[in-house]
Write a structure and sequence with these properties.
The protein is α+β, with helices and mostly antiparallel strands. The protein contains five helices and seven strands. The protein has a seven-stranded mixed β-sheet with strand order 3-6-5-4-2-1-7. Strand 5 and strand 6 form a beta hairpin.
Length: about 190
């Protein structure tokens, strides 16, 4: 299991942001709260007035765009799926099968995401996700993921070396991640 201070080459948040400013990395999950390999992942998203996306989405009624709730759950699901396959697959969101929103996410809300890996196939996977706010169901989403192969798509990683591992450490994934038997997950050398 990764612990603070173990990786001397690890970037600080400031170094990470400085190095990727031109690439505009947007993460829509603030912290992992649970991660069971091959099963499910849970995380938090704090909705803040400080986020630019709230400014112009719905003038006069600041709310977190529903598409970014979908993206946050897709990020959790993508990490869950990539880890399940040993970080060997290039995972992308292929389709949103269903998206039902029961209430708006407003400034000050904390969204509790849960994504469950329903099935995997040769070329992708299906996951279901829920978002809760103040104990009430906020959204229900069905996600379909695809694996990019080198024959049909450009080869190479989706992230620069070390970036994904840094993002996952900042979101405290390895503080809560366990394998199917409940043993802590180590930071993979593939990250």
């Amino acid at each position: 299991m990764w612990q603070p201070g173990l990786a001397a080459e690890a970037l600080t948040l400031a170094e990470f942001n400085r190095g990727t400013a031109a690439e505009m990395r947007w993460m829509w999950v603030d912290r992992f709260t649970e991660f069971v390999s091959g099963s499910h992942a849970c995380g938090l998203k704090n909705v803040s007035l400080a986020e630019e996306v709230l400014d112009g989405y719905f003038p006069g009624f600041p709310m977190f765009p529903p598409t970014l709730v979908i993206e946050g759950m897709a990020q959790l699901g993508g990490v869950l799926l990539a880890e399940h396959f040993g970080w060997e697959k290039r995972v992308v969101l292929a389709k949103v099968g269903k998206a039902v929103f029961h209430q708006a996410a407003k400034p000050g809300d904390q969204l509790h995401y849960r994504v469950v890996l329903e099935s995997t196939q040769e070329h992708g996977a299906i996951a279901s996700g829920t978002s809760h706010c103040d104990g009430s169901l906020q959204a229900e989403i069905d996600l379909m993921f695809a694996f990019l192969d080198d024959q049909r798509f450009a080869d190479g990683p989706l992230f620069n070396p070390g970036e994904l591992g840094t993002m996952l450490r900042l979101m405290k994934m390895f503080d809560v991640a366990v394998d199917a038997q409940g043993k802590p997950l180590d930071l993979s050398d593939k990250l």
